[in-house]
Amino acid sequence: MSPGERWLVRLEPRPNPSLRLVIFPPAGAGAAICFPWSRQVPEDVEVWAARLPGRESRIAEPLEQRMDVVVSQLAAATLRLLDRPFVLLGHSLGALLAYLVALNLKRASDVNPALLVVSGREAPNRPDNFTSIAEAPDRDFIAAIQALGGLPDHALEPELLRLWLPALRADFRLCASFAAMQTEPLACPVVAWRGLRDPTTTPEGVREWRAATTSWFQDRTADGDHFFPFDARTGFLETAIADIRTAQRTAAGPGLR
């Protein structure tokens, strides 16, 4: 398996996709959380998902806590997919990763996604109040994560906690390392989502994603908590696909140049 195949996983092969959707999961999660979406998107959309070290098939690899390293690896893996138009979609930490990968591709290759979809995170210029809990004792750390919208009971079983907690802490440290990175606007459209009951975001903070692009921008809300994109009742995926189709009609080639 090549390095790129480790960092991005194809969830459901398509024989001749018209578009590739690359998903960046939230902190602590691997590619598997995105698998249900790969079964729900239209047949011409091929879904790929990021898999960082220390989770799923990469469980034996050391966790990576430097944002510049993670972004450069993910961007290099994404470059392999650019024989089709592509969309980047990220939730929470994944929203920041999706933005930074898009920025890396713009700077290094002068190519942009047809669309960037972000959810569960305020704009990159806003302070992140949750990175400070990365070094908290386990009890406090878990309580803070539960406050984001709760965890399933089975996630608190000792054996699962042993596997899950280190990756989650590493991802929060990734967020902290982002502060040293330079940012600038993208040339692609951006759609930014917020859950109405998400304590980690504010309407103002989500609308500030407008400054992350020189193209068109749309902010959207869903009736849910921090993890609303993974609740089929919110209609997130259906609306995201409609936005993707709008952007796809205006994109030419692998991306916008």
Automatic annotation (TrEMBL):
Tell me the SUPFAM superfamilies matching this sequence.
alpha/beta-Hydrolases
Q: Which UniProt keywords apply?
A: Hydrolase
Please provide, alphabetically and separated by semicolons, the GO molecular function terms listed in this UniProt record: hydrolase activity
Under Pfam families, the record lists: Thioesterase
Q: Does the keyword Glycosyltransferase apply?
A: no
Q: Does the keyword Secreted apply?
A: no
| InterPro entries recorded | AB_hydrolase_fold, TEII, TesA-like, Thioesterase
Q: Its Gene Ontology biological processes?
A: lipid biosynthetic process
Domain Thioesterase TesA-like: from-to ranges: 33-237
What family name appears in the similarity comment? Answer: Belongs to the thioesterase family.
Q: Which PANTHER family match?
A: S-ACYL FATTY ACID SYNTHASE THIOESTERASE, MEDIUM CHAIN (PTHR11487:SF0), THIOESTERASE (PTHR11487)
Q: What is this protein called?
A: Thioesterase
What is the organism of origin for this protein?
Methylocystis echinoides
